[in-house]
Design goal:
By secondary structure, this protein is an alpha+beta fold. It has a single domain (27-173), classed as NADH Oxidase. The protein contains 7 helices and 4 strands; from the N terminus they run ααβααβαβααβ. The protein has helices spanning 5-16, 31-41, 60-76, 81-90, 108-131, 142-145, 147-157, and strands spanning 53-59, 96-102, 134-139, 164-173. It has a 4-stranded antiparallel beta sheet, with helices on both faces. The radius of gyration is 18 Å and the shape is globular. The chain starts with a helix and ends in a 20-residue tail after the last strand. The chain binds flavin mononucleotide. Flavin mononucleotide binds at residues 18-19, 138-141, 178, 181.
Length: 193
């Protein structure tokens, strides 16, 4: 690997990225920073140049309003009260939540690959946020994985019913360091002949 500053910076950023929900709730993130993260996401590899990204920037009172929509949907679907209550306040855990969704495609291969492109873009966001000093975390939960909850949330975000939320990226100014974690060993097959 080339011994240069760019490689060292990228490697350090990748190794230094940790989910961090420990944010300063009084410290805003300006629109320009969010726009920059959105732009960087879109540099992810995209086989068919389909432009599958659908971004929703959730801030301020919208966080509570969307949390209420998600909580109501979860309660109607039979969710347990503690889980419903967690959902109600979930989006208020950081000043900005960026929902990142993948557009569908009639072609099954493009449909699948749209999701992979958007997932790669989410990692771009997390790495750029880390390098820029922001706390970030990729989270899912019922508002992403339970269609009964994700449906009303997508409608409130202006997404189409077939758009697939790939991540809720929680963003804030760091109030403290993230935790650490051990990586499991890599599982690698080396096929040489
Ligand atoms: C698709 C996806 C969904 C995730 N959903 C959640 C979640 O709902 N709640 C959560 O605490 N972390 C969630 N995470 C974050 C991982 O749990 C986190 O990356 C993992 O704990 C490793 O920690 P690290 O990010 O600090 O390396 C999700 C990550 C991915 C890729």
């Amino acid at each position: 690997m080339a011994e240069n500053g760019a490689y060292a910076a990228v490697a350090a950023t990748i190794r230094g990225r940790r989910s961090n929900m420990n944010v300063d709730h009084a410290a805003p993130i300006d629109d320009a920073a969010i726009d920059e993260l959105i732009e960087l996401a879109r540099w992810a590899p995209n086989h068919f140049r389909t432009n599958p990204f659908r971004f929703s920037v959730i801030r301020g009172a919208a966080r509570g309003r969307l949390g209420q929509i998600a909580a109501d949907a979860l309660a109607a679907a039979g969710g347990q009260p503690p889980v419903v209550e967690r959902q109600r306040v979930q989006f208020e855990r950081t000043p900005v939540v960026l929902a990142v969704a993948a557009a569908p495609d009639a072609d099954p291969v493009k449909h699948l690959e749209n999701r992979y492109t958007v997932a790669a873009g989410v990692q771009n966001i997390l790495l750029a946020a880390t390098a820029g000093g922001l706390a970030s975390a990729w989270r899912s939960g019922p508002a992403m994985v339970d269609p009964a909850v994700a449906g009303p949330v997508k409608a409130a975000l202006g997404l189409a019913p077939d758009d697939e939320i790939v991540a809720y990226v929680y963003l804030g100014q760091q109030a403290g360091p993230p935790g650490n974690r051990e990586l499991p060993p890599a599982v690698v097959n080396r096929i040489n002949s």
